[in-house]
Amino acid sequence: MTMVVETNGNGPLDRQAAVLSSIQQMHEDFQAAREEIAELKAELHREVDRRVLLNEEREYYRTIALRLQREKTELATDLSNIGLLCVRAQESLKNAEEIEVVEEKK
């Protein structure tokens, strides 16, 4: 990087002072950039940690939702089975009543 340094005087000390001032300014800019980079890295780490926590929370609720869905399916199956057993029980009861009626007639 080529840099042009303006000096007010013609002496070598003026030029050296201007170059030194310019170098000092570049150093300060460099330090400010490094500080900003450090802040951005810290912010990035916080966001990554936040994302990890959100993913863990999502997985937790997803697991609960899957478990509840499975239990809901099991309950629906049990209710269906109960309904079928009731129908079969009614049929058996009806058959038993018909047998009683037939036996009473004998």
Structure, described:
By secondary structure, this protein is mainly alpha-helical. The chain has a domain at 9-80. The protein has one helix and no strands. The termini are far apart. The relative contact order is 0.04. The model has no long low-confidence stretch (mean pLDDT 90).
Overall morphology: rod-shaped
Main sheet summary: none
Instruction: Please tell me the overall pLDDT.
Output: 90
What is the count of DSSP helices, taking H or I runs of 4+ residues? Answer: 1
Q: Radius of gyration in whole Å, from Cα?
A: 43 Å
Assign a percent range to the helix content: over 70%
Strand content: under 5%
H-E string: H
State the total count of DSSP E strands: 0
Ends distance: 120 Å
- List segments where confidence is low: pLDDT < 50 over at least 5 consecutive residues: none
Look at the helices and sheets and give the structural class. mainly alpha
Short précis:
This protein has a domain at 9-80. The chain contains 1 helix and no strands.
